[in-house]
Design brief:
This protein is α/β, with parallel strands linked by helices. Helix content is 49%, strand content 13%. The chain has one domain (2-262): Rossmann fold (3-Layer(aba) Sandwich). It has a four-stranded parallel sheet with strand order 2-1-3-4, sandwiched between helices. A three-stranded parallel sheet has the order 6-5-7, sandwiched between helices. Strands 8-9 form a two-stranded antiparallel ribbon. The chain is globular and about 55 Å long.
Length: 269
Amino acid sequence: MKIWFQKHTIIGRNPWLDETYPKHAQAMLEDRAEVTFVGLPDAVYDDQIPADYVRFGQIEVFFSWYFASQAVKAERAGYDAYVIGTSQDPGLAMARSLVSIPVLAYGETAFSLARTHGLRFGVVGFIPELQEALTANIRRLGLAESCAGFEYLPGGRDLVTAATRDGSTGALAAAMDEAAAALRAQGAQCIVPGEGLPNEMLWAAGIHEVGGLPVIDCDGLVMLTAEMHARARRLHVWAADDDSYDTRRAPDDVIDRMTEIFSPGGGRW
């Protein structure tokens, strides 16, 4: 089984992080599935992390189309599932309409797990501008009552950038402890990392609790969930391509023509 995991970061900018993701996949899936981690094109930004870009909904429009189009590449390359590995789930609805393989997303999967187990979750992040997008997604999922609130780390960008260099998470974990404790006082029963980077850093450090609350390992969860959905589809437990408006498939040559005409920059998959 093959899973395509699409990220907002650029492969090669953070060698420690690039090494950590495959280790995480191996720990979660062992030999049951192969996960390919794919980042954004090198030319998208010059920084170490995309924090100054994902905070703009205007730019997220382009990311959303890119994430959706990558799902088509994944399906045509023979992948069994596609993961949108970033908290605001860019391009999720579009990707699900474009392909028949299961499409799973970081935010939706984590929030839904908390609701399934009757837990109120709090979000701890480092990019405050994402709160608006995450809140909209939570409301769309019907989970507003399950969300206890948001806390964003003072100086969080510097903490995360420093940790991506070598995985030193002490200062980041301490800041997340304080933020999680505040959310616990507001009724949170578990913590969802507000972005994929701190999630990966906590997992690599073996930290599964902050502020006295369990942390949902969103990256691990979405990989496991993608595997489960793909396996269930193979066994005919469900089908993603029933005959409905959003899942009805036009011929590939038509989709290729639409892509050349309408996609940002044009071109084929």
